[in-house]
Each structure stands twice: as C-alpha cells, then as structure tokens.
Amino acid sequence: MKKHSTVLIILCLVISSCGLTTKGQNGAKGKDGENSKTITITKDEVKDIVSYLASDELKGRNTGTEGIELAANFIQKQFEDNGVKPFFKGFRDEFKFKSRKDSITGFNVVGYLEGTDEKLKNEFIVIGAHYDHIGFAKKVENDTIANGANDNASGTAAVMSIAKYFSAKKNNKRSLIFALFSAEEMGLRGSAHLAEKLKSQNVDLYTMINFEMIGVPFVDRDYEAFLTGYDKSNFAGKFNEYSGSNLIGFSEVSKKYGLFKRSDNFAFYKSFGVPSHTISSCDLTNFDFYHKVGDESDEMNYEFMANLINKTIPGIEKIANTATREITLNEK
Q1: What is the pLDDT of residues 185-196, one digit of tens each?
Q2: Is residue 273 part of a domain?
Q3: How many CB atoms lie within 10 A of CB 259?
Q4: 198 in Cβ contact with 265 (< 8 Å)
Q5: Domain that holds residue 256
Q6: 211, β-bridge pairs
Q7: Is 175 a domain residue?
Q8: Most buried of 157, 186, 233, 280, CB within 10 angstroms?
Q9: Element (H or E) spanning 160, and its range?
C-alpha cells in the first residue's frame, strides 16, 4: 500500500505541475483523432500571467519601452513551451510608426496552430488581445505606474490560455492564429498592421475573436460578457448555442460609445469584411480604474476569469470544426 501511495502522489504532482488540470487517459485519441483528455484552465495559471504582466517591473507596458519588451519575451516563451509555432519566420511582427515627433517600433507577438483537416486548415481564425498599456498615469499615493491588469493583461491571459489548451488538444480542423497586439493604446496600430499584412498574403479569414478587459464580472445581468458589434453578425447567437449557455449578450453602453470600433477586432472587420468582435466583461459600468494606477492585479477576479475562459473554449472549438462557415454577417 505504501509503495502504491507514493506512486500516486508522484503522478498527481506531475499532472499538477503542467498548469492545466487534466482528466482521462493522457494522449488518448477520440473521433477524428481528437485528443480525448479533459483540460481545464485554472485560476492560478491565469493569475500567474496577469500578475507578471501587470507587475511594477514592466512599468505599464507602453509600446516602445523596456517593459513591453519583457512582456513580449514572456508571451513568446509561453508559446514556445506549449508548442505554439510562430506564424511568420519568428514570433515578432514588427511595425514602425510616428507618435508626435517620435519614431516608435512596435511588435505584435503572433503564434499559430495548423488545422488538422486537409481542407479546412486553409481557413483561419484569429484569436487576439492587446498586451500593451499606457505606461504611467496620474499619481495616487506616490504610485504612477498604470499596471493595466484588466486593460489588458486579462485579455492577454485569455489568449495565452486558449493557445495552451488547443496546443494540448490538437483538435482544431481550421488553423488558429494567436495574436497579441502592441500599440492598441496608440490608435489600434498593431492590429491594423497585422490585418493588412494577413490580407496582403491572401489569408482566408473566417472570423476574428478579440478579448478585452475580462478581469471583473458584471452585476445583475443574465449574461457573463458582452459582444461588441452585437447586431453586425449572428456570432452571439451561434456562440451561445455552441457553448450551451447564455454566455455573451448585448451592452447598451458598448453601442452608445461605439466600442466595436475602439478595439482590435475592428481592423479585421475593415480589411476582411468578416465577423470580427470583441468579448468583454467590462463596459466601464463595473470597473473604476480604467487607465488609472488602480488597475492592479489584486483587483482581478481570477475565478471568474478562469470560468469565462473555460466557457468560451467550447464555442471556439465549434467554430474551428464546423463543416461550413455558420457564423455570418447580418444583411445591412
């Protein structure tokens, strides 16, 4: 009995050290070669990502600074460790722009998982979030670092966790591009650059799913996150059907302030004319620290974040695997 107990403890430690909770026979293949193990994103791994990206060490991750360089290195290392490949020759997609009188070099971090279906792998889904923030803000109690935990280390953690999930499952028939954008806070420049670049390379884009500020839950709503551009496509209805819950809904605040055009989904909508939306749980009615020094990692609800990410994954899996493109733009 002692010997068996020791073996069991060792096995448990090995599994838990992977950062993902797994159940079932590791590596077993199901229908169409799908990996049959159950994988759950944990609140601890989400917290680890957000806590680093929103740490004082990174000094608010402003584009063109040492802090965002550290953030990019961190994201790239996570991609490499999880078997996510670079979409281009390397993970960094560099671009230059002028801000006032300064010339700034920014770079997106772009990973890739090829689809498993010989035909459908030529169709692509972009899953994105911006990983930059504003750097510094108005001083509060001798603190000037705008750490950007909710905006948008939270969305970055979602993309990184989803990439980790699919790299383990290997069950996406369509190809997945995981894009972390820079210079969103300077005018959506990173996403605009990448959308134009992919368009110039004739990438066949099915849809773009962007994550923005998912670190805090709504109060008194019958859905968990809202969708920008809710009326522009059937995305919300199909996604809720795919996920088996009323996961995403409509936000009056989002429509009033035109949030559809104010995040990184918009560049892909403009360039490709395909359903491109942002999923968010914060329309500023439930968060007081937008672009302030109080946007700290300890303000985040990690249990909510992990649950939301886990609930979005079945929807993304379905989008990646349907025989035809079921998500379409609505007629104008």
Answers
A1: 999 999 999 999
A2: yes
A3: 22
A4: no
A5: 30-321
A6: 279
A7: yes
A8: 157
A9: helix 154-169
